[in-house]
Amino acid sequence: MSRRDGLEDAQFETIHPFGDGTPTSPGLEDFKADEVDRWVAQFALAVEIAAKRATGFSADVAALRAEWIQRTQPMRADATARAIVDHLPSYPIITAAIAEKITGRSRVAAINGLERLAKAGILTRHRNQRKGDSWEAKELFVLLDGFEQSVLTPVA
User: Fold this and answer.
1) Measured between alpha carbons, how far is residue 43 from residues 27, 29, 46, 101 in Å?
2) How confident is the model at residue 151 (pLDDT cuts 50, 70, 90)?
3) Alpha carbons 66 and 84: distance in angstroms, whole number
4) 85: nearest Cα among 145, 139, 133, 131
5) Strand runs (DSSP E) across the chain, as ranges?
6) Which residue has better confidence, 49 or 124?
7) Are 133 and 39 in contact (CB under 8 A)?
8) Does the pLDDT of residue 12 top 50, yes or no?
9) Residues 60-113: pLDDT tens digits?
10) How far is 146 from 126, CA to CA, in rounded Å?
11) What pLDDT score was predicted for residue 86?
């Protein structure tokens, strides 16, 4: 890509930002004004901050998983509920079919595990006669919302 092509891309992004209406980065204005070094520095800083916040988010998710395991004690290490907890970060909304598949346990065992987690306040059951019930790990979404806000909050 030539420098000219890059400038045209930056101009397009200034007019029509990424995603669905995300505000244009001030860095793109710098790029457009031929201040590429400043744009690269700002972009690198944004990537560094996002990576640090993602590392913090990952630690928060691990701490939440540990808390969930504590809430379900006593529980055998090979219990279906424990296997489900281990997969909840990947499946914050889960069905019995998914729990059955990811744990390799029977449908009855999967439902029992999901119900145990619901009784412990880890999952919230959503009943749906047409599509089947699902369970939601609301605390995981709270962490995700916090992470999203931290990434979108400008650094002074």
Assistant:
1) 7, 12, 5, 41
2) confident
3) 13
4) 139
5) 93-95, 124-126, 134-136
6) 124
7) no
8) no
9) 999 999 999 999 989 888 899 999 999 999 999 999 999 999 999 999 999 999
10) 23
11) 94
The enclosing H or E element of 141 equals helix 138-152
Q: Which two tokens mark 10?
A: 């930056």
The sign of the dihedral angle between the CA atoms of 135, 138, 141, 143 is negative
**What phi, psi does 136 have (nearest 5°)?**
-120, 135
Q: What are phi and psi of 43, to 5 degrees?
A: -65, -45
Give CA 81 to chain center in angstroms.
Answer: 21
What confidence category does residue 33 fall into, taking pLDDT thresholds of 50, 70 and 90? Answer: low
What is the widest separation between alpha-carbon atoms in the chain?
64
Q: Which two tokens stand for residue 66?
A: 């540990």
